[in-house]
């Protein structure tokens, strides 16, 4: 059986944008039950939907239909989190897929631990985060922001 020699390399190849025809051949050689083949195909479709890079470009497939901008994210965060200050840096030029770094200052973060603050931001941008490869965030209360500016 091929599986003992190749391990899960077929999954890696598919997740990296490899040929589904070639991958299907490897899968069929590796598994005997048709239900397992169906499960692998479902995983591959989910991978494509999650933003697997196309073979022809370094940009995700959705990039042609949905361009996220730093300004759009800034306005949405400012509006939905009633933020006093929002900085959004598009770090995509340094990477292959869309990526952003944000700083959000909001009174809604008062009394909340870091995890809850990040969840508020993630909830606000839930739809957009499906199309963002890397997302770095810093969340501060107005008091923390004032102290940080004085440093």
Q: Explain this structure to me?
A:
With 151 residues, this protein is of the alpha+beta class. Helices cover 48% and strands 15% of the residues. It is built from eight helices and three strands, in the order H-H-H-H-H-E-E-H-H-E-H. It has helices at residues 3-6, 9-15, 20-30, 34-49, 70-80, 114-124, 126-129, 142-150; strands at 83-90, 99-106, 134-140. It has a three-stranded mixed β-sheet with strand order 1-2-3. Helix 2 runs antiparallel to helix 3 (20-30). The chain is globular, with a radius of gyration of 21 Å. The N and C termini lie far apart (63 Å). Residues 1-15 and 19-65 have low confidence and may be disordered.
Helical stretch count?
8
Describe the global form.
globular
Main-sheet strand order equals 1-2-3
Q: Share of helix among residues?
A: 40-55%
Report the uncertain regions. 1-15, 19-65
Following the backbone from N to C, one meets helices and strands in this order, namely HHHHHEEHHEH
Radius of gyration: 21 Å
Strand content: 15-25%
Overall structural class, as computed from helix and strand content, comes to: alpha+beta
Write down the overall mean pLDDT. Answer: 73
Biggest sheet character: 3 strands, mixed
- Tell me the distance between the termini: 63 Å
The beta-strand count equals 3
GO molecular function, one term: 2 iron, 2 sulfur cluster binding
Family: Belongs to the BolA/IbaG family.
Subcellular location: Cytoplasm; Nucleus
GO biological process, one term: protein maturation
């Amino acid at each position: 059986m091929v599986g003992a020699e190749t391990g899960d390399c077929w999954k890696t190849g598919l997740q990296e944008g490899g040929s589904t025809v070639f991958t299907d051949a490897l899968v069929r050689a590796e598994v005997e039950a048709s239900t397992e083949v169906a499960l692998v195909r479902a995983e591959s479709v989910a991978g494509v939907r999650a933003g697997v890079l196309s073979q022809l470009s370094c940009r995700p497939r959705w990039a042609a239909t949905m361009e996220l901008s730093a300004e759009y994210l800034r306005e949405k965060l400012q509006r939905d989190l009633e933020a006093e200050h929002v900085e959004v840096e598009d770090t995509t030029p340094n990477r292959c897929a869309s990526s952003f770094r944000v700083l959000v200052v909001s009174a809604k973060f008062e009394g909340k631990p870091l995890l809850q603050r990040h969840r508020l931001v993630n909830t606000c941008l839930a739809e957009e985060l499906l199309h963002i490869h890397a997302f770095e965030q810093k969340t501060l209360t107005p008091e923390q922001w004032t102290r940080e500016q004085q440093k």
